[in-house]
């Protein structure tokens, strides 16, 4: 699946805010403008770098991911939001986008030993995808949402490091 991540900037942010979920998915991630705001205010804390990216297939933006990463840590590397536009779901883009986002984190932050995310209990499709990539439930809950957190680490993470 051929996708690339491009940083969100003044040229493409309007494209990001036009992306849409299926109605039943709207509780699972922040709306795009909200995701951008979370990056702008650095909602995880000043020690975190918050970066929004659009996910492109060719020249078409088909989704976005936002990350919040503490470069001084080993495990504070979070995918804050990730989504594929409703029209493009079910075609392999989600799996490719999660993988590409993790690869980007690993190449940008060499200290990273674990990538984490929160997946709402009702979000069975996303949870299955994460488990199939090797994420495991941490047993802890996200402080903001009270929903379970997942972590990818060890050999399952290492296979995504570029040589
Ligand atoms: C989760 C999400 C990113 C997956 O994106 P996607 O492009 O549909 O995913 P893919 O096409 O790569 O499919 C991934 C897996 O989910 C399965 N899947 C996708 N849509 C499905 C559906 N409607 N019903 C059942 N399974 C589905 C696929 O079969 C695939 O499984 P497989 O690899 O074992 O065959 C997308 O559904 C989404 O944006 N959801 C709303 C936002 C969200 O929940 N984000 C995650 C927050 S934690």
Description:
The structure is a single chain. This protein has 163 residues and is α+β, with helices and mostly antiparallel strands. The protein has helices at residues 13-18, 32-40, 93-108, 124-133, 154-158; strands at residues 4-7, 49-57, 60-69, 77-84, 114-118, 136-141, 148-153. Residues 21, 25, 28-29, 82-84, 89-95, 117, 119, 123, 125-126, 129, 132 line the site of coenzyme A.
Secondary-structure content class: alpha+beta
In round numbers, the mean pLDDT is: 97
CATH architectural category of the domain at 4-117: 3-Layer(aba) Sandwich
Strand sequence of the main sheet, in spatial order? 1-2-3-4-5-7-6
Biggest β-sheet: count, sense, barrel?
Answer: 7 strands, mixed
For the record, what CATH class of the domain at 4-117 applies?
Alpha Beta
**Secondary structure: helix percent:** 25-40%
CATH superfamily of the domain at 4-117: Gcn5-related N-acetyltransferase (GNAT)
What's the count of strands? 7
Residues in β-strands, percent? 25-35%
Low-confidence segments, given as residue ranges, are none
The small-molecule ligands in this entry are: coenzyme A
State the separation between the terminal residues, measured CA to CA. Answer: 20 Å
Shape: globular
> What oligomeric state best describes the polypeptide chains here?
single chain
* Gyration radius over CA: 15 Å
| CATH topology assignment of the domain at 4-117 | Aminopeptidase
- How many alpha or pi helices? 5
Order of helices and strands: EHHEEEHEHEEH
